Amino acid sequence: MAVAPLSLANIQGDILFGLPKQSQSFFLFKIDQPDAFRANLANLVPLITSAQQTKSNITEIKKVKLSQKLRANEGDGEAVHPDIVTVSGVNIAFSAKGLEKMGIVGDLGDFLFKSGMKEGALDLGDNMRQLPDGAIQPDWDDAFLQEIHGVGLITGDSHETLNQKLTSVKDILSNSVQEIATLSGDVRPDDQKGHEHFGYKDGVSEPAVKDVESFKPGQTVVDQGVFLLGRGDDAFQDRPSWALDGSFMALRKLPQLVPEFDKFLLDTAGTQESADLMGARFVGRWKSGAPLMKTPTKDDPELGADANRNNDFKFKANDQSGCPFAAHIRKMNPRGDLGESSITSHMVLRRGIPFGPEVSDEERKSNKTTQERGLMFVCYQSSISSGFSFLQQTWANNPSFPFGTTTEPGFDPLIGQTSGGGVRTMTGAFASNSSQPLNLLAQWVNSRGGEYFFSPSIPALRDVFAKA
Ligand code: HEM
Q: Where's the DyP dimeric alpha+beta barrel domain (predicted)?
């Protein structure tokens, strides 16, 4: 049977466009009463924000910003921060255990989703800890060590809008679930809006989904099937019909040691100017988002903000004079190192948000993190083993990737992990001698847990998951 053309009204809004947000909560829950839960879902479905609604919310926000002469274009690919328009969003996703608990029949055919992130924590390089009885478990927050069945994603332009919506969602589900935790994040304030906690502009490079959105110079146009189930090679595969237009979501809580990261750069590089360059070489972009490949010696904020230019570059194979092989954006999207088709199948749609307070004067002075902050990382893909897990394990954690270079690249300095605190090194950090290795001394991003979820289509939620 032919698959009907894609309809934005059927897809949850966070997947294709990203729910516009200033603040977001992740409501992690366990289903106690499956029948009551499925009955409650019928009342929740009308609150779910579709891709169509999200698209029109984004258009409206951009229009208002433009009319108020505020910067409407926030980097493209980047999440849209509503700040002056009242808007909220609701999406929902389920773990494999959650689907099982609800009695939803059918195999989505993704072994990593099925076994859950906790099972794969060691493979991802997460730190592990030994319990008194000798058992080993990931060194994660308690919330993620529990059996999580689902997550509600609630977004808003302010805490007030967000909390109102969160209360409605919790009220609807209350007699059927147990709350495990509600984790929240906020877009950073003022000139740091859109920047993650190390200070770099985030959401600059994002694939354009074919026939869904237009694309900018240098942006890769990627088949819908890389992100949505049933829209690619698997369209006629033996998957349940309710899988169509759903997507797998990887959620990771990633605390960042910001003062420690800054101190390392300054101690290693010697001056603030050299530290800024070394930091840019860790990321592959300056703090403004400007790519090193276009401006290798100094930041260029105009370039960073220009979506028509800030992705229009490629890396030079076997050459890290312009940008280290191990730089985060080169590990994650080795454009120019590999052929395009070897990269696109691993692309993901990133939808994270920073969490935690700004660095305090005290932390800055002592070079020590005392208040937890970082990134609630979220990404969508149609296969976890080709998407998130591949990027983390096969590229970021692999010192030999990109393969075939004369000098060994080393670890992604931002997210490359060696479980058990093994030494991480990289080359290319020193612009003056790009083959000189650098011992990274610490790991500044340490995962505290996460889970894999399935974000179903709205018809699947309404007609299959919900019960009248
Ligand atoms: C705290 C953790 C992280 C931080 C601070 C971080 C930071 C950044 C920054 C600053 C950029 C450049 C801006 C942009 O192109 O959007 C970026 C790009 C990217 N990151 Fe991360 N990131 C983190 C975690 C991750 C993880 C866990 C993954 C996947 C496993 C990932 C995948 C990507 C991808 C795919 C890109 C785009 C590369 C491109 O197309 O050029 N990031 N990240």
A: 10-189
pLDDT in tens, 328-370: 999 999 999 999 999 999 999 999 999 999 999 999 999 999 9
Closest CA to 310 of 298, 324, 332, 293: 293
Q: Which domain holds residue 123?
A: 18-187+223-253+450-465
pLDDT mean across residues, the chain:
95
Angle at 8 between CA 5 and CA 196, to 5 degrees: 130
User: Do 103 and 78 sit in the same domain of this protein?
Assistant: yes
**Do 397 and 377 share a domain, yes or no?**
yes
On the question of pLDDT at 269 being above 90, the answer is yes
332, 373, 384, best to mutate for ligand 1 pocket (most atoms within 8 Å of CB): 332
Instruction: Note the maximum CA span of the chain.
Output: 67
Binned at pLDDT 50, 70 and 90, residue 429 comes out as very high
Is the pLDDT at 70 greater than 70, yes or no? Answer: no
- Asked whether residue 239 falls in the same domain as residue 275, the answer is no
Asked about 202 being catalytic, the answer comes back as: yes
Could you tell which of 202, 226, 282 is best to mutate to test the pocket of ligand 1, judged by most ligand atoms within 8 Å of the CB? 202
Q: Is the pLDDT of residue 83 over 80?
A: no
- E strand segments, 194-316: 208-209, 221-222, 247-255
Q: Distance, CA 178 to ligand 1 centroid (Å)? A: 33
Per-residue pLDDT tens over the stretch 110-129: 999 999 999 999 999 999 99
Q: How many domains does the chain have?
A: 2
Q: 14, 110, 126, 202: which one is catalytic?
A: 202
* Six token digits for residue 105: 């029949």
